[in-house]
Structure formats: C-alpha cells, structure tokens
C-alpha cells in the first residue's frame, strides 16, 4: 500500500502517523509495525518521551537499543501536537516545520540531526511543481520524518521495510533513505532522457510539434531539482567531519558512499541539462532558418510582382500620350517588357541567394 493511499485511513486514527516501525538492533527479528499509541508507550518507557525524565528504556545485552521510525503527515493538525507531547525533539526541528523551510540542509542539534530534504511527489508528472519537502529528525533511538505531500522516496523505503529490509541503526536508516532518494531521482533522469530522445528524433525527422515548450518544461524541472538537491552532498560532507558521538564508523562510511552516489546522480542531471540546452539551440536555429526562408520567399514574390505593378500603374493612368496605345502589337510588347524585367529581377534575387557563405 502506497504512502498516498495509507495516509487517509491512518490520519484520523493515528494522529497523522502514516507508518511506524520498530527495528531490532541485535536480533534478526523483522521490523515491527507500530501505531501512535504503541509508539507513545515505547517512547515513554525508553525515556525519549517529552514528558519522561529518565533514560532507562529497553536495551540489548550489547548495549544498543532498538529504535523507531515514525513517518507523519503534516497535513493532519494532530501530528505536530503528538510530536510535541510524546517526542523530545530539538527546538530547531519544530522551527523548521513552522517556517516551512525547503532549502536542503543537514545539521546537528545537540545529539540529534535535523535534515530538510527535497523529493518528487508520489503522483509525479514531470512538472517543476511536482517537488515537495521531507523534514527529518533523528538521534540514536528515534527517526522522525514528516511531509505535507506523498513522496516517492519514502514510499519506496516503506515498501523495502515491509519486504524485510531492517537497518541496524538510525544512521543506516538515513543512509537507506538517501540511497532510495538517489534511486528515485535516477529513474526520473532516465525517464526524462527517454522523453528527450523522442523529441530529438522528432526534431531530426522534422516532424516536431512545439518542441521548445516541451524541452523548456523538462529543463525547468531539472534546473529546479538540481537547485534544491545540489546542497545535499556538501551538507552531509560537513556533517561527517563532526558526526554525533552515537554514529559509528560503519555508519559514516555508508553515508559517505551514499553521498558519492548522490553526487554522481547530480552530475548525470547536469549532463542532461546541457544536452537539452544544445537541443533547444538546435531547434531555435531550425525555427530561425524556417523564418528566414519564409521571409525570402515573401521578398522574392514582392520583387517579381514589382515590374508588372509599376507598368500597370503607369499604363493605367487616365491621361493622353500613353505609348503603344495605337500600336497593333502594343499589348504583347508591354507583356514582353514586364516578362523581361521579371526575369532580370528573379536572376538578381536568386543569384545572391546561391552565393556561398
């Protein structure tokens, strides 16, 4: 069941909680689905609740706790109230939600990480407006994600968890989220490439219909995606220079690898943008050439019609002394003069047209 479908029934019953999962760090037990009520109870018992005063939650023998991933729909007004009541999140996360920040960022807030990521909508239709924001807050034992519109990346990650994917830590879950985001965007780039290929084939076959509008729409989409996503690898790199104490070396390496994959995807996106730009220039050159040919034809027709118009005007004057008026072959003489002038004008026009550049 997709993010778009699941959000409707859960919004009323679970305080805007779209999905919740409990991951077991040390055992091979699959992830356990959580409701808002069970998540609140777990947070209270683990000391992660905003009203809890201790940190004595369930812990494995190896010293590592289980952790939760809770994904909320911010369109439900109960979501923010639930988070403030049950989750001890840093104030900077709530400030980002209130201000509606959409610029990409990943930063530390005490022992937590606060991230603002951008992704394509679940009902993505290759429009620059089909991009929405995902707000994330995580620490060693809790991952909170929140959005206002269904997103493809989170939906793909939910599907992977349902199929048995079980990250061993919150940082690994963030890594999986970034890799899934990169995979989704790679698919967008591939589908955009297919559309550009079709437009290019149509342009080469000279059977295109308004290709500039279609190319412009695709280029605007890529430009906006790159503008929103480009800061993400740099922000993650700065974070990895001073990671939280609970982030292990394996987690840092995994996030660095995910950042590198994301950077490669951004370079592919830039390459596609350059290709679209060149194709736009080629289409513009073809349109300019068509306009030039049309203007040339119009000019030639005007020049060829000039002699007959001039002579018709002269001989049509209602005055005396018109030459050849009484000549038995005057009509044919005038026709010959007009034809001669027309041939000379046509020769001059086409001779200049045939001159090499």
UniProtKB/TrEMBL annotation:
Recorded superkingdom: Bacteria
Ranges in a coiled coil: 262-289
Transmembrane segments annotated in the record for this chain: 295-317, 329-350
InterPro entries given in the database record: CorA_cytoplasmic_dom (IPR045861), CorA_TM1_TM2 (IPR045863), MgTranspt_CorA/ZnTranspt_ZntB (IPR002523)
Compartment(s) where it occurs, according to its Swiss-Prot or TrEMBL record: Cell membrane
Keywords, sorted A to Z: Cell inner membrane, Cell membrane, Coiled coil, Ion transport, Membrane, Transmembrane, Transmembrane helix, Transport, Zinc
Main location: membrane
Classification via Pfam families: CorA (PF01544)
Membrane topology label: Multi-pass membrane protein
Family named by the database record: Belongs to the CorA metal ion transporter (MIT) (TC 1.A.35) family.
PANTHER family linked to this entry: CORA FAMILY METAL ION TRANSPORTER (EUROFUNG), ZINC TRANSPORT PROTEIN ZNTB
Protein name: Transporter
Organism taxonomic ancestry: Bacteria, Pseudomonadati, Pseudomonadota, Betaproteobacteria, Burkholderiales
């Amino acid at each position: 069941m997709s993010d778009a479908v699941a959000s409707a029934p859960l919004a009323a019953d679970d305080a805007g909680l779209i999905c919740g999962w409990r991951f077991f760090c040390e055992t091979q037990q699959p992830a356990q689905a959580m409701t808002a009520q069970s998540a609140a109870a777990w947070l209270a018992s683990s000391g992660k609740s905003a009203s809890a005063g201790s940190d004595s939650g369930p812990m494995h023998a190896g010293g590592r706790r289980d952790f939760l991933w809770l994904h909320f729909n911010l369109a439900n007004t109960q979501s923010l109230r639930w988070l403030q009541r049950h989750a001890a999140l840093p104030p900077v996360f709530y400030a980002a939600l209130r201000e509606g920040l959409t610029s990409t960022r990943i930063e530390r807030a005490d022992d937590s990480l606060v991230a603002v990521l951008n992704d394509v909508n679940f009902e993505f239709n290759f429009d620059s407006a089909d991009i929405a924001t995902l707000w994330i807050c995580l620490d060693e034992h809790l991952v909170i994600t929140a959005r206002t519109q269904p997103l493809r990346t989170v939906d793909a990650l939910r599907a992977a968890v349902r199929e048995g994917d079980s990250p061993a830590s919150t940082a690994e879950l963030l890594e999986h989220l970034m890799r899934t985001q990169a995979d989704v965007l790679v698919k967008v780039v591939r589908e955009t490439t297919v559309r550009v290929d079709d437009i290019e084939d149509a342009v080469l076959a000279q059977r295109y219909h308004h290709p500039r509008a279609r190319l412009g729409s695709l280029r605007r989409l890529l430009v906006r995606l790159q503008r929103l996503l480009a800061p993400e690898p740099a922000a993650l790199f700065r974070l990895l220079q001073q990671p939280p104490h609970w982030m292990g070396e394996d987690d840092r390496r995994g996030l660095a690898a995910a950042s590198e994959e994301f950077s490669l995807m951004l370079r592919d996106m830039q390459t596609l943008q350059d290709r679209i730009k060149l194709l736009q220039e080629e289409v513009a050159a073809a349109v300019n050439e068509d306009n030039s040919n049309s203007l040339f034809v119009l000019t030639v027709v005007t020049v060829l019609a000039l002699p007959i118009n001039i002579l018709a005007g002269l001989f049509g004057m209602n005055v005396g002394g018109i030459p050849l008026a009484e000549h038995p072959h005057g009509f044919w003489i005038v026709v010959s003069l007009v034809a001669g002038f027309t041939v000379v004008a046509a020769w001059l026009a086409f001779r200049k047209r045939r001159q090499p550049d």
